[in-house]
Task: inverse folding
């Protein structure tokens, strides 16, 4: 459903994405792991054109967009307009939530569909209440982000992404800014979304999620996808030895004990047990 072909991106002459090709099927959950600076965030941001790749092709469903060297890192206003579909159909969830502080939770959820997609307020408001229920915050519709915990704010941000009825959601380290005791509630919501069939691409340091919930794991290093495969294949790969050692004992892979069927129900429990 999502297809990236030969994406490249440089910043100040330094290659940050080096000929990345990737295809993600509908309903697939892909985790991207790897050291800081590997290019993980840039890959997500290039996927929905928050950052413009220097070259390559991005396809989503039936539609496709070719980037070429002549436009190096820029889109004209007309091109920006023509590619709105890519930004709306691939919703993004950020580490820092990025909610509007001066708007209520309900308004935060309604903003995208009413302003960008020009849908009717009445219908959108109804849908927003349903989404708040789904993310477990039905009673917070009229609260402001500052009234909420970090975990609740991130659940609002996930709700806001869902409001766009995206083809896929891209998560960039969604639990990295949270206090340890709040990580579990967000991972639990993400796990539920994954089980409901949502297509998800998740940059994460939460190995419990990468191992227990994803269909596929990509290990990025030096602007490339260095290893990709099932969680067992990737976590058992010798190339990850250094990375795994740095993550420390709690996150280090334990392929022997964790049979795939045992790993899934463990995912949220392991996360809650972190603190
Ligand atoms: P990761 O998410 O894996 O930590 P990033 O994609 O954020 O890595 O960054 C990869 C490299 O690109 C880093 O060296 C970073 O400093 C650089 N980089 C990222 N964004 C920009 C930018 N907007 N301008 C210049 N350099 C950038
Ligand atoms: Mg990053």
Result:
């Amino acid at each position: 459903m999502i297809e990236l072909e030969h994406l490249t991106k440089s910043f100040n002459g330094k290659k940050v994405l080096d000929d990345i090709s990737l295809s993600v099927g509908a309903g697939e959950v892909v985790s991207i792991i790897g050291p800081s600076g590997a290019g993980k965030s840039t890959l997500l941001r290039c996927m929905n054109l928050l950052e413009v790749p220097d070259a390559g092709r991005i396809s989503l469903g039936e539609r496709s967009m070719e980037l070429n060297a002549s436009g190096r890192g820029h889109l004209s206003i007309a091109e920006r307009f023509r590619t709105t579909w890519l930004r709306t159909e691939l919703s993004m969830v950020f580490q820092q939530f990025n909610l509007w502080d001066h708007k209520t939770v309900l308004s935060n959820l309604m903003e995208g569909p009413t302003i960008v997609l020009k849908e009717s307020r009445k219908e959108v408001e109804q849908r927003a209440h349903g989404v708040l229920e789904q993310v477990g915050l039905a009673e917070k519709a009229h609260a402001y982000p500052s009234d909420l915990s970090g975990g609740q704010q991130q659940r609002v941000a996930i709700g806001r992404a869902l409001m766009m009825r995206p083809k896929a959601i891209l998560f960039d380290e969604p639990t990295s800014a949270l206090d340890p005791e709040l990580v579990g509630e967000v991972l639990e919501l993400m796990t539920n979304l994954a089980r409901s069939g949502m297509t998800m691409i998740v940059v994460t340091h939460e190995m419990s999620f990468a191992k227990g919930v994803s269909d596929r794991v990509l290990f990025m290093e030096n602007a490339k996808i260095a290893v990709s495969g099932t969680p067992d294949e990737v976590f058992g790969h010798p190339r990850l030895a250094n990375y795994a050692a740095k993550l420390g004992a709690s996150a280090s892979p334990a392929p022997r004990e964790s049979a795939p069927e045992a790993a899934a129900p463990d995912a949220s429990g392991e996360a809650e047990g972190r603190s």
Notes: Residues 11, 16, 36-42 surround adenosine-5'-diphosphate (ligand 1) (CB under 6 Å). The mean pLDDT is 88. Strands lie at 2-11, 14-24, 29-33, 55-60, 63-67, 90-93, 168-172, 200-203, 216-221, 224-229.
